[in-house]
């Protein structure tokens, strides 16, 4: 078992075009490190230099937006499904 | 200069949504087969901010939308929203989000302005501004909007579902 991660279209340049990839880790941060070791450059797109989740990116563990569950510290486990999406917002 | 080709029914549906939600900003997507430039399925979204100056897809709605598109092998060909007091041009906030690291630069951003015409007046010149842009790394380029009579020749008609 592993954690399945769904990758948005533009970030598939890092995953050889794959829509989903698999990774492991106990927290979202560890999972992203693991993914980055196999798909170089992915971490830079998701995490800022200050080590925070990028504000224009939404990450969900199963159905939960990680902003409400501890952000990068959100626990993850085998069998979870993680989804990365672009936040859609704006204003005049 | 790029071009957005959009069918009349979808164009009208976007404009109608903007009018209906005025003075709040309206927002939504037009999905199409992944990898194509064909905006075929109109999906109005709720503006979670319910604001005249800001729009935001609710986080849970966004996940549901993308799951649905994924099941249909679609992507958002168009992301649209309205400005209700300013011109139909991307704001700094719009550009910031559209340049985010997970935002696809192949998206067409449609901006509609209802600043002059909230409710339909039926008078001449009662038009809602409808413009389209590409936004790549903070750079905005406007593109032509070409209205075609139908994208759906040989397909079932677009379903228009308001939340």
UniProtKB/TrEMBL annotation, chain A:
<protein>
    <submittedName>
        <fullName>Molybdopterin synthase subunit MoaD</fullName>
    </submittedName>
</protein>
<dbReference type="Pfam" id="PF02597">
    <property type="entry name" value="ThiS"/>
</dbReference>
<dbReference type="InterPro" id="IPR012675">
    <property type="entry name" value="Beta-grasp_dom_sf"/>
</dbReference>
<dbReference type="InterPro" id="IPR052045">
    <property type="entry name" value="Sulfur_Carrier/Prot_Modifier"/>
</dbReference>
<dbReference type="InterPro" id="IPR016155">
    <property type="entry name" value="Mopterin_synth/thiamin_S_b"/>
</dbReference>
<dbReference type="InterPro" id="IPR010038">
    <property type="entry name" value="MoaD_arc-typ"/>
</dbReference>
<dbReference type="InterPro" id="IPR003749">
    <property type="entry name" value="ThiS/MoaD-like"/>
</dbReference>
From TrEMBL, chain B:
<dbReference type="InterPro" id="IPR037518">
    <property type="entry name" value="MPN"/>
</dbReference>
<dbReference type="InterPro" id="IPR028090">
    <property type="entry name" value="JAB_dom_prok"/>
</dbReference>
<dbReference type="GO" id="GO:0006508">
    <property type="term" value="P:proteolysis"/>
</dbReference>
<keyword id="KW-0862">Zinc</keyword>
<protein>
    <submittedName>
        <fullName>Proteasome lid subunit RPN8/RPN11</fullName>
    </submittedName>
</protein>
<keyword id="KW-0645">Protease</keyword>
<dbReference type="GO" id="GO:0000502">
    <property type="term" value="C:proteasome complex"/>
</dbReference>
<keyword id="KW-0482">Metalloprotease</keyword>
<dbReference type="Pfam" id="PF14464">
    <property type="entry name" value="Prok-JAB"/>
</dbReference>
<feature type="domain" description="MPN">
    <location>
        <begin position="3"/>
        <end position="139"/>
    </location>
</feature>
<keyword id="KW-0378">Hydrolase</keyword>
<dbReference type="InterPro" id="IPR000555">
    <property type="entry name" value="JAMM/MPN+_dom"/>
</dbReference>
<keyword id="KW-0479">Metal-binding</keyword>
<keyword id="KW-0647">Proteasome</keyword>
<dbReference type="GO" id="GO:0008235">
    <property type="term" value="F:metalloexopeptidase activity"/>
</dbReference>
<dbReference type="InterPro" id="IPR051929">
    <property type="entry name" value="VirAsm_ModProt"/>
</dbReference>
<dbReference type="GO" id="GO:0008270">
    <property type="term" value="F:zinc ion binding"/>
</dbReference>
């Amino acid at each position: 078992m592993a954690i399945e991660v769904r990758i948005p279209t533009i970030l598939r340049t890092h995953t050889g075009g794959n829509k989903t990839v698999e990774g492991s880790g106990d927290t979202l941060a560890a999972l992203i490190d693991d993914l980055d070791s196999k798909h170089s450059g992915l971490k830079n797109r998701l995490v800022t230099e200050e080590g925070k989740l990028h504000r224009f990116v939404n990450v969900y563990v199963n159905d939960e937006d990680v902003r409400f569950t501890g952000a990068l510290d959100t626990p993850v486990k085998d069998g979870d499904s993680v989804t990365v999406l672009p936040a859609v917002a704006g204003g005049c | 200069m790029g071009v957005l080709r959009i069918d009349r029914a979808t164009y009208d549906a976007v404009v109608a949504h903007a009018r209906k939600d005025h003075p709040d900003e309206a927002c939504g997507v037009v999905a199409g087969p992944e990898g194509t430039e064909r905006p075929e399925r109109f999906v109005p979204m709720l503006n979670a901010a319910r604001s005249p100056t800001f729009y935001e897809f609710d986080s849970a709605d966004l996940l549901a939308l993308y799951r649905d598109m994924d099941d249909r092998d679609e992507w958002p060909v168009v992301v649209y929203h309205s400005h209700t007091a300013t011109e139909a041009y991307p704001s700094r906030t719009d550009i910031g989000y559209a340049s985010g690291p997970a935002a696809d630069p192949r998206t067409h951003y449609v901006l509609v302005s209802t600043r002059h015409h909230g409710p339909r007046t039926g008078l001449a010149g009662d038009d809602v501004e409808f413009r389209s842009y590409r936004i790549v790394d903070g750079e905005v380029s406007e593109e032509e909007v070409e209205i075609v009579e139908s994208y759906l020749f040989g397909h079932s008609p677009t379903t228009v579902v308001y939340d």
